[in-house]
Amino acid sequence: MLRIWGRTNSLNVQKALMALEEIGRPYARIDAGLAYGVNDTPAFRAMNPNGLVPVIDDEGFVLWESNAIVRYLASAYAPGVLWPLDACERAGAERWMDWQLTLLLAPLNAMFVPLVRNPGSGDPAAMAAARSACEAHFAMLDALLARQPYVTGAAFGMADCCIAPVAHRWLHLPLTRPDFPHLEGWFARVRARPSAKVLELPLS
Ligand SMILES: N[C@@H](CCC(=O)N[C@@H](CS)C(=O)NCC(=O)O)C(=O)O
User: Are 101 and 39 within one domain?
Assistant: First the structure.
């Protein structure tokens, strides 16, 4: 059976869990990271030398990096469903996945950590800058979702698995947000999917 290592409150783990739920492949999850430890053991580092979650082991195929995991699961088990077969649609989806990792995540974390994980730990100026970066980034996503129903394209797909956990954090941070109706409409559609149960826990 496929195994996945990672604590459920990690957004990177949630991406992979969402993809697993979508493809319907049975899996066993092993708690790892932060209070659970495990990710600092030699056995774990033999799988992922970064010592980070998530990691999957699919019948001997070990893979780390959340977006790579989502791409693997989508292409191996859901071609034409999570994984767009059209090269342009697939590249368009991958662009938003890369954008999430390279541009969206850092400012989101710069707010999430001081607001939720280590309350009061943030520098106010850095938090203000992170907040305006997040607002600008989510405005881009809102504009995309005004033109198409899902981040992946016409149907729910791999990019939605990668961005939903980040949007979930943003939409539940204890702060006042600009009105992004298309983002919120998309998130409501995503949240109605059975796979979104992996997001249904308080931010921590
Ligand atoms: N780029 C990596 C980042 C992985 C990462 O930063 N994982 C965090 C959790 S979100 C982690 O393992 N932190 C250490 C810990 O939980 O102990 C990915 O997308 O998989």
Answer: no
The tens digit of pLDDT for each residue in 138-170 reads 999 999 999 999 999 999 999 999 999 999 999
| Cβ–Cβ under 8 Å, residues 54 and 13 | yes
CB atoms closer than 10 angstroms to residue 174: 8
Sign of CA dihedral 174, 163, 111, 38: positive
pTM above 0.90, yes or no: yes
Ligand 1 and 48: CB distance under 6 A: no
Distance of CA 108 from the midpoint of ligand 1 (Å): 14
- Residue 47, ligand 1, Cβ within 6 A: no
Whether residue 61 is found in the same domain as residue 33 = yes
